Backbone:
């Protein structure tokens, strides 16, 4: 059999029908043949060859790497079965070489490059000169040699390069002149020649012109081939190859234009790019690449002749490319096809293209010298001189030196006086001309003076304070060099010692408080220790208390406190910190009227604060105010003002933000110009150059994203790379370096994802992964930067994963950061807010990665560790300590004490902490700092406990051997949906095993759409229905809603639950051969991601005119937010059973619920009066929230019949509406050790959060985590009249199985079955789907 023809035949068959089932059938047939073939036979080798080729083709169509891996394995098995004399060995060699070359293209493994070369050489030796397959083999060998040369970064004239070109010449010569393959081979030869020219130019600029004949030949070959095709009216002009042929000629012409600047080459290239685009078939995966090629050519012509129309067309074409959906590209790597749909920027159809005036065209010429920008070697034609008059200081310094030399006075006083003068000169000197020797001498003099002022010298505090200031100043000039942290630590220690010597009411205490606060703020920014920032704020508040209105230091104290609060607002996303910062800056500005020298500083700080407020509130007015403050400050600053570079750079950042709202390209160009001006004012090595360079790189990256100019991205990458070279390799734990690494990694990923030939560079991807890893490894970098870097690192590693489990390890590292991100020492609102910052989907991505590696128990562990982090952290503070108390009672007692304090602190109200007096704010800061210290103590104590024998895994995430116990009472099915690769899987815990059930016909996007339909028909966008416990759709829409719901449930049955049941029937004895049953077994659903919004328990086929087939026919469904929730022990049975029932027939501002009274009567029919605590039944027993909270810890069952509300923005404000709101945050404070069951007969009590589906924050989950073992709740609004009917049937069935030893106590294990029966009652009465589906059971 001819190998190439068989592969071509399979593809031809698919192209006729476009039915993947045809390929599936071929694969299935070949597998059957293989099972029947004798071992080690020639017949078997032929079948292995055929199956290998079929799997290779299926990979080409589907992109599933396991198919390619299996194809290679089968072809390798076939090869030893065929001796050299067998003609089929040739076909196997070609097939295996082709498959290995495909895998190299996908994964970049070097063996997949070298092995095909050897195989193709052997194949060529077995071929005759007239063999029809010889040209293709020559071509394949040439491509492999070119790839090897590229992989090794070989020379343009290397042996591999020369041989590859000669092979392509030979292959082209062997084909008839007008043969289609011959023309294609000619184009491949021309591409190889262009690649050779590009390689020579990159390796030696001097070869750009001498090697032009190579490029000329390539162009001529392209041109001749296309002319012959058009003259012969060949079918190739209408084939899929045609657009690429025109495109490659255009690229060659562009390359020649870059070398010669011949405009006619560029004009022809643009025309050819347009023709290539016109020839594209519909939905071609190459469309994005061809559009990008045109964008590059248009930008080149714009840069050459600056035509407004070229720029407009380039931008519109770039935006058109970004509107295209992601399509798999066979010629690109597996990593590219995995990452491109998720990480590449895409625009919506409503996105405006940038506006640009023909009178204000951008100038690209200023950005061609990267190194000069980084190194500070830009032409000084616009630079300034050190013109500030420092003669007064120089004169004072000389006078001090003379006095010191003559010993005219007390030596310590003279030393101090000279040191202060030198410090003043250093700080007043323009940054560009500062001399470190000045501040170094100041430190030496202060140190000598300090030694002369031993305790209890009255001026010792002054010497300590001044020496601390000098160390801080020196650190600020050197902090980006290794081993400089000691300077800052020394400064902090000296300030602390000075502060001890300046107790109240010392007049200089406020000055030292300020100095220490500034030093700690600096240490936080460069070290990331949150306690430093909290202490800094506390010290500045205390200093402000000591600076009354007319105090000379009040303005600077206000500014320092505001700056620290603003930094904290960035870390914690606390808007009140930012608002207070603006108020403080305003107050400081009022104290600095013109011509106060510090007024520009206050204006600059206000600009920063209002820009930060814009980032939170997205109000354009805040941004306009910010820009106005920046411009106002700059107007008061001379070129020599030390703050001018920062003001210029920050104004540029604000303009970048305004561009993102207004899309005026001039804002971006102005931002670039301002950054460049700032760099001109800063000397090489100055610490302010780093943020300026970072911001400049960010603007260039943004401009690339907006207009598609590739050079902007290249320059941004080189800026970051050159800047990083200033850091030493052993100085990796440097948060400043992390600030550069983030845009560096982002730019590299953007270039990797480029659609043209520049993209898909494995080196860019590896460099990006290294950059993100370096951020993660920098423990001094704030967690708010480390976590997103860790997640990106894991994603890139996942896309590049070669099966060694590195990606899985990195996912684990990222998940381990989640509890640190949430923080045990912060209030619950801050904790919940922190978990909204890019955490959603992490655990699902990690689990999907483990599933692909068939590590199913590890997938379960990752899902449990990475979901419900909010509650996991809260429950750690309530961990039972029986074993620890027995072995180490002191450690147990200390752990309980700290945990109790942290739990109380977490529930504190932080909403009004900045609204009081300055004194109360100081108290609040002290409290925050105390809780931060408690958190540090708690973490240290955990490590201490883990060091004890037998407690090494104390509070660590549970392993699978423990988690598997969640399936002790029935199967648990975990539904995982990951957006990263659009994968969906089910993992069933059956006994102590995990059964993987791939959901091949269900994609993440489909699940998302189904969840969207559910939210649409149950959302609050519809008017209310009278007598409903919440919001549902209008009565006349009910039929439409039921139809939509019926369709959703039918899809879920077909694509989700039926495949699961079919798989479990084969592998789980509990479901084997079971038909519809009156006593079906229990099954728990643990739904993740968008699955959490779907009524999986009701999936089925509901034919109005026929029988139904649904989940409820086969199992009793329950839900669980986590596996740990199923591991909770039930409370001990007590003789005194108590049940609380709270009804709220009328609620101000809500519709009346008259049937809640009937619901209470139904409950009283089944529960003895002595066991009931009721509220709301009479005017004398109102549902007071304080009474409910008082009684809840004592009851075993709680039943609420009322309105409920889900707060999507702050789930902790979700509440049951009684006389007042019974909020989630209040329920969290309760210790409900007797709680077994809660029935929430209200709306939305189990409604998931669309933005954070893996952090279950609804009322039902809250009550499970706060102590109840199980809950009955609703996914959406219920009809008021259904409440009594469900309650009647539920409690009837629950009490029917009461505990025989305690007459009144129900058997709680039957709660799920009781609800199952109650729903059957509603169904039997003909209730619509919308009415019975929302009722669900959660927990044990």
Residues:
């Amino acid at each position: 059999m001819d190998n190439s023809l068989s592969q071509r035949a399979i593809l031809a068959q698919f192209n006729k029908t476009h039915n993947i089932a045809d390929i599936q059938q071929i694969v299935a047939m070949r597998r059957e043949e293989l099972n029947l073939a004798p071992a080690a036979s020639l017949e078997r080798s032929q079948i292995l060859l055929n199956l290998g080729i079929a799997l290779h083709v299926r990979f080409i169509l589907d992109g599933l790497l396991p198919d390619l891996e299996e194809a290679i394995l089968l072809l390798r098995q076939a090869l030893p079965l065929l001796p050299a004399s067998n003609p089929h060995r040739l076909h196997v060699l070609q097939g295996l070489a082709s498959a290995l070359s495909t895998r190299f293209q996908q994964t970049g493994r070097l063996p997949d490059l070298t092995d095909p070369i050897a195989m193709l050489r052997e194949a060529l030796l077995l071929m005759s000169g007239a063999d029809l397959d010889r040209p293709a083999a020559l071509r394949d060998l040439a491509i492999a040699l070119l790839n090897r040369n590229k992989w090794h970064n070989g020379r343009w004239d290397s042996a591999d390069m020369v041989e590859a070109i000669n092979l392509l010449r030979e292959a082209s010569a062997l084909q008839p002149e007008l043969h289609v393959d011959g023309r294609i081979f000619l184009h491949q030869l021309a591409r190889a020649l262009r690649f050779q020219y590009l390689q020579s130019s990159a390796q030696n600029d001097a070869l750009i012109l001498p090697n032009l004949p190579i490029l000329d030949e390539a162009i001529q070959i392209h041109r001749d081939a296309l002319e012959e095709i058009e003259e012969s009216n060949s079918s190739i002009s209408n084939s899929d190859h045609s657009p690429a042929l025109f495109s490659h000629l255009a690229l060659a012409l562009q390359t020649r234009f870059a070398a010669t600047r011949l405009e006619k080459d560029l004009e022809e290239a643009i025309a050819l790019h347009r023709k290539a685009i016109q020839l594209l078939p519909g939905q071609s995966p190459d469309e994005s690449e061809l559009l990008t090629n045109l964008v590059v050519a248009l930008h080149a012509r714009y840069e050459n002749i600056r035509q407004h129309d070229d720029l407009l067309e380039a931008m519109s074409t770039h935006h058109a490319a970004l509107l295209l959906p992601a399509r798999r590209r066979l010629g690109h790597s597996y990593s590219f096809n995995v990452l491109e749909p998720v990480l590449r920027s895409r625009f919506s159809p409503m996105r405006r293209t940038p506006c640009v005036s023909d009178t204000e065209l951008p100038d690209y010429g200023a950005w061609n010298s990267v190194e000069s920008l980084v190194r500070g070697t830009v032409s000084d034609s616009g630079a300034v001189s050190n013109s500030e008059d420092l003669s007064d200081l120089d004169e004072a310094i000389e006078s001090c030196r003379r006095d010191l030399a003559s010993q005219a006075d007390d030596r310590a006083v003279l030393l101090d006086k000279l040191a202060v003068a030198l410090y003043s000169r250093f700080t007043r000197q323009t940054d560009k001309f500062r001399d470190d020797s000045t501040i170094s001498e100041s430190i030496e003099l202060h140190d000598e003076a300090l030694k002369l002022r031993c305790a209890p010298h009255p001026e010792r505090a002054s010497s300590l304070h001044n020496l601390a200031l000098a160390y801080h100043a020196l650190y600020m000039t050197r902090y980006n060099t290794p081993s400089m942290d000691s300077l800052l630590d020394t400064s902090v220690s000296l300030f602390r010692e000075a502060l001890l010597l300046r107790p109240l009411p010392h007049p200089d205490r406020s000055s030292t408080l300020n100095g220490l606060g500034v030093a700690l703020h600096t240490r936080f920014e460069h070290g990331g220790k949150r306690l430093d920032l909290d202490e800094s704020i506390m010290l500045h508040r205390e200093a402000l208390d000591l600076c009354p209105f007319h105090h000379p230091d009040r303005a600077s104290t206000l500014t320092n406190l505001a700056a620290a609060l603003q930094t904290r607002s960035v870390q914690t996303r606390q808007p009140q910190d930012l608002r207070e910062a603006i108020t403080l800056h305003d107050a400081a500005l009022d104290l600095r009227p013109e011509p106060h020298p510090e007024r520009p500083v206050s204006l600059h700080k206000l600009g920063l604060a209002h820009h930060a407020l814009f980032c939170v509130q997205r109000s354009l007015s805040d941004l306009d105010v910010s820009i106005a403050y920046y411009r106002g400050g700059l107007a008061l600053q001379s070129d020599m003002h030390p703050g001018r570079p920062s003001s210029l750079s920050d104004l540029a950042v604000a303009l970048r933000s305004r561009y993102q709202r207004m899309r005026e390209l001039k804002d971006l160009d102005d931002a670039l110009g301002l950054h460049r001006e700032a760099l001109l004012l800063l000397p090489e090595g100055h610490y302010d150059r780093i943020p300026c360079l970072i911001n400049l790189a960010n603007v260039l990256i943004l401009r690339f994203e907006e207009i598609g100019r590739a050079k902007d991205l290249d320059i941004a990458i080189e800026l970051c790379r050159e800047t990083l070279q200033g850091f030493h390799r052993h100085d990796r734990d440097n948060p400043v370096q992390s600030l550069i690494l983030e845009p560096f990694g982002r730019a590299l990923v953007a270039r990797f994802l480029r659609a043209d030939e520049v993209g898909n560079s494995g080196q860019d991807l590896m460099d990006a992964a290294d950059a993100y890893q370096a951020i993660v490894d920098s423990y001094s970098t704030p967690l708010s930067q480390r976590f997103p870097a860790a997640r990106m690192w894991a994603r890139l590693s996942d896309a590049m994963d070669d099966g060694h489990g590195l990606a899985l390890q990195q996912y684990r590292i990222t998940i381990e950061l989640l509890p640190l991100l949430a923080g045990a020492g912060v209030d619950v609102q801050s904790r919940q807010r922190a978990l909204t910052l890019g955490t959603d989907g992490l655990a699902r991505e990690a689990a999907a990665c483990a599933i692909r590696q068939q590590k199913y128990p590890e997938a379960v562990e990752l899902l449990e560790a990475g979901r419900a982090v909010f509650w996991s952290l809260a429950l750690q503070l309530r961990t039972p300590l029986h074993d620890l108390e027995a072995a180490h009672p002191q450690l147990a007692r200390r752990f309980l004490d700290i945990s109790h304090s942290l739990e109380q602190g977490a529930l504190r109200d932080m909403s009004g902490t900045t609204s009081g007096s300055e004194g109360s704010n100081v108290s609040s800061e002290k409290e925050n700092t105390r809780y931060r210290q408690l958190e540090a103590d708690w973490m240290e104590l955990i490590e201490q406990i883990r060091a004890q024998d037998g407690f090494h895994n104390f509070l660590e995430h549970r392993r699978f051997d423990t988690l598997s116990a969640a399936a002790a009472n029935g199967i648990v099915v975990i539904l995982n949906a990951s957006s990263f690769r659009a994968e969906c899987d089910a993992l069933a815990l059956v006994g102590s095993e995990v059964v993987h059930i791939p959901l091949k016909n269900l994609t993440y996007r489909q699940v998302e759409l189904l969840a969207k339909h559910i939210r649409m028909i149950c959302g609050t966008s519809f008017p209310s229905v009278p007598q409903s416990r919440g919001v549902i759709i209008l009565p006349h829409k009910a039929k439409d809603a039921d139809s939509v719901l019926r369709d959703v449930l039918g899809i879920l049955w077909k694509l989700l639950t039926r495949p699961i049941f079919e798989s479990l029937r084969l592998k789980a004895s509990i479901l084997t051969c079971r038909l519809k049953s009156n006593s079906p077994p229990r099954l728990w659903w643990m739904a993740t991601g968008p699955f959490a919004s779907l009524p999986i328990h009701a999936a089925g086929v509901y034919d109005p005119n026929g029988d139904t087939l649904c989940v409820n026919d086969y199992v009793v469904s329950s839900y669980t937010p986590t596996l740990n929730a199923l591991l909770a022990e039930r409370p001990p049975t007590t003789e005194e059973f108590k049940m609380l029932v709270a009804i709220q027939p009328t609620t101000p501002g809500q519709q009346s619920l008259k049937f809640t009274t009937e619901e209470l009567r139904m409950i009283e029919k089944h529960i003895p009066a002595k066991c009931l605590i009721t509220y709301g039944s009479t005017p004398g027993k109102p549902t007071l929230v304080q009474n409910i909270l008082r009684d809840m810890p004592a009851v075993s069952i709680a039943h609420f019949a009322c309105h409920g509300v889900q707060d999507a923005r702050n789930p902790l404000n979700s509440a049951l509406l009684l006389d007042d709101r019974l909020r989630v945050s209040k329920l969290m404070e309760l210790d409900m050790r007797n709680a077994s069951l809660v029935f929430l007969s209200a709306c939305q009590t189990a409604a998931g959060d669309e933005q954070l589906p893996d952090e279950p924050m609804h009322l039902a989950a809250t009550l499970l985590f706060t102590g109840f073992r199980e809950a009955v709740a609703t996914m959406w609004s219920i009809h008021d009249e259904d409440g009594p009917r469900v309650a009647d049937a539920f409690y009837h069935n629950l009490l029917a199985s009461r505990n025989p030893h305690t007459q009144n106590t129900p058997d709680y294990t039957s709660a799920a079955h009781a609800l199952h029966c109650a729903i059957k009652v509603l169904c039997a009465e003909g209730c619509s789907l919308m009415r019975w589906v929302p009722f669900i059971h959660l927990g044990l």
User: Anything to note?
Assistant: Residues 808 and 849 are 7 Å apart (CA to CA).
